Amino acid sequence: MRGRGTYLMMNVRIASPQDAEGLAVLHVNSWKASYQGIISDEVLSNLSIEGRKKKWEWIFENLHQDETIYVIEMEGMVMGFIDGGKSREAELDYDAEIYSFYLLKEIQRRGHGKLLFHKLVEKLRSDHYHSMMVWVLEANPSLEFYKRMGGQYIAQKEITIGGETLIEVALGWDDLSTISVE
Predict the structure, then answer these.
(1) Which residues contact 123 (CB under 8 A, 6 or more apart)?
(2) Cα(33)–Cα(26) distance, integer angstroms
(3) What Rg, from alpha-carbon coordinates, does the chain have?
(4) Element (H, E) at 175
């Protein structure tokens, strides 16, 4: 929102390789805002836009089966994204997965995350997926978002980031057809 009563238009679209830099900027800024106090300051301060850009370029060149990345942009700036496709977790009984999902802090809690979530669910359903899961750090406040969206606890594991052991929780949706995307 700009000024009183003036709304800026948000555009949701499928991301392209040309979005690598915008995704990198968003990814780094989101990590620094979302994971402060969860992941060490040293790890967060060593994140680089150039490093993330290279990772995004690699992702676009090596997409997983049915992987789709949606971005939400305002005035040409990537403000959020969701990335998902076929599940990478063979041992868990879910056929689709959210790989990553980040919004800039200034657009959180305004319905944009829900919009991106529903866009991905709609795409996964059209690609004939029936269930979905996501891994999220247990200490990440966004865990509550996934629960509000109907995600149910299915598993947890320890992961190491910057030499620290953290708990990651898997939430799942058994039936994508029960998620209203309106």
Answers:
(1) 68, 70
(2) 10
(3) 16
(4) none
Q: Which two tokens stand for residue 78?
A: 């990537």
Element (H or E) spanning 57, and its range?
helix 49-61
Q: Which of 137, 132, 131 is nearest to 169 (CA)?
A: 137
Strand order in the sheet with 96-103: 10-14, 68-74, 77-86, 96-103, 132-137, 164-173, 152-161
- Judged by DSSP in three states, 179 sits in coil
pLDDT tens digits, residue range 100-148?
A: 999 887 777 777 889 899 999 999 999 999 999 999 999 988 899 999 9
Q: How far is CA 10 from CA 77, 111, 122, 151, in A?
A: 10, 11, 19, 26
pTM for the complete prediction?
0.88
Beta-carbon contacts of residue 3 (< 8 Å; ≥ 6 apart): none
Q: How far apart are the first and last CA of the chain?
A: 23
| Tokens encoding 57 | 């370029």
For 103, residues 6+ apart whose C-beta sits below 8 A from its C-beta are 30, 72, 79, 80, 112, 113, 116
Whether the CB-CB separation of 79 and 70 falls below 8 Å is answered with: no
